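Deviations from the work plan: none for this task. Representative record:
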Amino acid sequence: MSFFTRKISRRTVMQALIALPALSLVRKLPVADPEAIVEVNGWILKRGDLT
Amino acid sequence: MIFDSYEAFRAVNFTAKVCILGSGPAGTTIARKLGAAGIPVVVLEAGSREFSDDSQDFYRGVTVGDPYFDLDITRLRFMGGSSNHWAGWCRVLDSQDFEPKAWAPDTGWPISRADIEPYLPEVHEILELPDFRPDVLVSDDIRWVQLIKSSAVRFGEKFADELDRSRNVAVVLDTYATELAGDGKRVTGAKLWSNGKDPGSFTADYFVVCTGGLENSRLLLWSNQRSNGGVVPNAAALGTYWMEHPTFEGGNAILADYSEFEVDATNEAFFSPTLAAMERLEIMNFGIRLIETPYPGIKSIIADLACTVPEMAEWVSHQLSQNLRCAAQLYVTWEQAPLASNRILLSKTDVDHAGVPRIELHWKKSELERRTLLEGLRLFGTTFVQKDLGRVRIANWLTNGGDYPTNEELAGHHHMGGTRMGTDMTKSVVDANSKVHGMDNLYVGGSSVFCTSGECNPTTTIAALACRLGDHLGKVIGA
């Protein structure tokens, strides 16, 4: 067994892995503002124009 | 009185108090003002009543730097001067154009717009203009401005009868003042060239040089060289800070809403930045000319839009079926940063038929102007998005950092600077009254006195400055 698995139980590792998706959900992700001005191929647009 | 030659003029006994060189908008306006005030004036016009290739040949020259028009094409040398090919577009420089800009060196005039406003009613009469409507703020950054497309007064045609009847104004055609002589305090005479001969010199108490935005510098540079600095004693800036209004197609627009502005009779509308936007972006003034595109012309724009934003292209197609006026070309004209390196020099190798060195024009657009063009279009495009007026596309050559196109208009045929107005004698040639620094009797009229160019066509401001100079001279001479 590696040093890592000797110090932490398998159960703890599994719980941590299971919790990862949940953590990403609560993390604050930037929300694209549809009114923001963007320049694409020379066009001056609203970000909302692209969706 | 109009004389077709200097010989005919010499046969009458007419003593002039003021000699005006050039019969374009500035020269004619000043002559009319002085004549109306009872002051005898001679106007020496190098050309005749009509266009001729022989006369134009005196205007040939070369340009060093950016591509520019042939110098014998971009101006006219006959009675009425370059008003003979003027398009007639009118607008006065904005108040902000007269103010110094911290981000653009050597800007600012020694006078303000308020100094020429009292003359605008006269200008409206001369140019046959209705009142200007006030600018309309489309956003905090962009103004919808008005350019009046007038009937384009040809000064030679319009005022020929009046000048011919005048007892105080003598217009002498085919009479080219090749140089002024001076002693460092006063101009003492003008050397002439008429009908291929040297008929001697002409003297008057006052001289006003109104030969055009290129020729004023040429005449004064040559005169000063011949008189060892006796005509422009403070000549450091003579010929420098020359400016034009570069003009290029900068992009397209698709229009959705006309509620914030309307197009004129030729389906055009004009937009300029606010001073706050210029300050924030540290750019020069500019004018966007929006020209509604005929229906077939917009297919390529929609095709391009479909590659970028397919859904929006569908929306545009839908709009198109309901409203054929929904696309536009965007032409941009901008104010050049005043640069001493943009200047008129005398050719060392080439002279005209009278022996006067031809012009060597050094002219190059600057990086600040390139930024003005690009950021100006972005500003305009952003206003269009925020106000939901439509969408703007900036031309590829601009976004890709490409060269200026060489198959377009290039500029406005607006020749400004070279004898600019100012208080600093190292950076200007004339004072706030258009009098040459250090000289008692020499004045300059026309757009060569412009310190900055603004973004609008110069003729209206030229006429206002000419009215002001005519008034000033009338007071000086009458005192």
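Chain B has one domain: 2-245+335-365+404-478.
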